[in-house]
From TrEMBL:
The protein's Enzyme Commission number: 1.14.13.2
Organism: Paraburkholderia atlantica
Name of this chain's protein: p-hydroxybenzoate 3-monooxygenase
GO MF entry, a single one: 4-hydroxybenzoate 3-monooxygenase activity
FAD-binding domain location: 2-341
SUPFAM superfamilies to which the protein is assigned, alphabetical: FAD-linked reductases, C-terminal domain, FAD/NAD(P)-binding domain
Keywords of this entry: FAD, Flavoprotein, Monooxygenase, Oxidoreductase
PANTHER family xref list: P-HYDROXYBENZOATE HYDROXYLASE (PTHR43004:SF3), TRK SYSTEM POTASSIUM UPTAKE PROTEIN (PTHR43004)
Length: 396
């Protein structure tokens, strides 16, 4: 089989890239290890930046997001028993939408299938070849047979555990990493929202986040030991912990409900440079990871492939390679902005084991500052909605 662009991975990066390329008249094939059912039901992110919302809408895959997602104009920071609002729209003129990642995936798969795209689910033994030539290929197994996909470019959108990053020679790669000594315990529960907007809470017992999925399903997280097991946490214990961390002294109480999903995720910051080697390009989690506190991962994946699709378009339509050559440099500006923001939010809101009382007071001082100074609040807001990252890339 032959195509112009071979894409490994059907996460947000791979599917959205395939969709963008299709709109530009460029053919692609997407290879994915998991089944369609699996990718359409894995619970992950929830927050879409203004730029992501706009891109999905402009490219014709934003209809259900608009109808079923929740448009939020602000969020709350909870600390020292109080809640203080960050008015995103007043501070930046922009907003965010809370819409589950697997719903974005469903919309993208539906659009690709409707356009007759070649999406191969359930592949195994993916490997990348010839990326230092102009005839690269991807080998894989599908339904018991070995296949080779020949293409002009290979795009690694295969997430943090994929194979494509390893295809870049170690000597050319520089990896940057920070592993946090805590994780997030996530739940989905039945019931009404506890609040009109998301609540990010700093408490002596640890961080908590109150998010939502729909009028009847809520998403909540609390900081935990990444090595803990969900089996150690009864529903009663979970609710006691969430109440202790997220209820306020001003009369706000979160609303309990029947818990139907529990999981624990570790937290990591990671950037791999370079994001290109020969005819191989990396996008999304394959090249970088952020802790979820800043809600940036999915948005960065979308931003990467937006840059890449323009560069590939310039190659096919104008025979230009300069945008492809600059892809890594261009994408990394936004990525490092998001890395810093996610690290900053994480450090300000989480309980750091061994932190001195002085260091704990610094966290509170910072929260007081971002909730009282318009200048400081604007820094937070423009990063959260993604405007700061967009400014990093104005020279596209
Ligand atoms: P994905 O989504 O991991 O997709 C990669 C796909 O590649 C497939 N694959 C392979 N296919 C073929 N051959 C191989 N060898 C392959 N190896 C892997 C995988 O099966 C998979 O389908 O990466 P992508 O597309 O780069 O997208 C990244 C996002 O998924 C990720 O950054 C976000 O989920 C992060 N994230 C959040 N991001 C946000 O923007 N806003 C949020 O609110 C937010 N909350 C979160 C999050 C991530 C979380 N977890 C679970 C880490 C909350 C949590 C709890
Ligand atoms: C979510 O709703 O899953 C969510 C929201 C905000 C975050 C991370 C995750 O920062």
């Amino acid at each position: 089989m032959r195509t112009q662009v071979g894409i490994i991975g059907a996460g947000p990066a791979g599917l959205f890239l395939s969709h963008l390329l299709h709109l530009r008249g460029i053919d692609s094939v997407v290879l994915e290890t998991r089944t369609r059912d699996q990718i359409e039901s894995t619970i992950r992110a929830g927050v879409l930046e203004q730029g992501t919302m706009d891109l999905l809408t402009q490219t014709g895959v934003g209809e259900r997001m608009k109808a079923e997602g929740a448009l939020h104009h602000g969020f709350e920071l909870a600390f020292e028993g109080k809640r203080r609002r960050i008015d995103l729209t007043d501070l930046t003129g922009q907003a965010i939408t809370v819409y589950a990642q697997h719903e974005v995936i469903k919309d993208l798969v539906a659009a690709r299938v409707a356009a007759g795209a070649e999406l191969r689910f359930g592949v195994s033994d993916t490997s990348v070849h010839g990326i230092d030539t102009d005839k690269p290929s991807i080998r894989y197994c599908h339904e018991g047979a070995e296949h080779e996909l020949q293409c002009d470019f290979v795009i690694g959108c295969d997430g943090s555990q994929g194979v494509s990053r390893q295809a870049i020679p170690q000597a050319l790669r520089k990896d940057f990493e920070r592993v946090y000594p805590f994780g997030w315990f996530g739940i989905l529960c039945e019931g009404p929202p506890s609040s009109d907007e998301l609540i990010y809470a700093r408490h002596e017992r640890g961080f908590a986040l109150i998010s939502t999925r729909s009028p009847n399903v809520q998403r909540m997280y609390f900081q935990c030991d990444p090595k803990d097991s969900v089996d150690n946490w009864s529903d009663d214990r979970i609710w006691a912990e969430l109440h202790a961390r997220a209820d306020s002294d001003e009369g706000h109480k979160i609303i309990d409900g029947k818990i139907f999903q529990k999981n624990i995720v570790g937290m990591r910051s990671f950037v791999s440079t370079t994001m290109q080697y020969g005819r191989l390009f990396l996008a999304g989690d394959a090249a970088h990871i952020v802790p979820p506190t800043g809600a940036k991962g999915l948005n960065l994946a979308v931003a990467d492939v937006n840059v890449l699709s323009k560069a590939l378009d310039a190659f096919y339509k104008e025979n230009r390679t300069d945008l492809l050559d600059r892809y890594s440099e261009t994408a990394l500006k936004r990525i490092w902005r998001a890395e810093h923001f996610s690290y900053w939010m994480t450090s300000m809101l989480h309980r750091i084991e061994g932190a001195s009382p002085f260091e704990q007071q610094l966290q509170v001082a910072e929260l007081e500052y971002v909730t009282t100074s318009r200048t400081a609040a604007t820094v937070l807001a423009e990063n959260y909605v993604g405007a700061a990252g967009a400014q990093m890339q104005v020279n596209l």
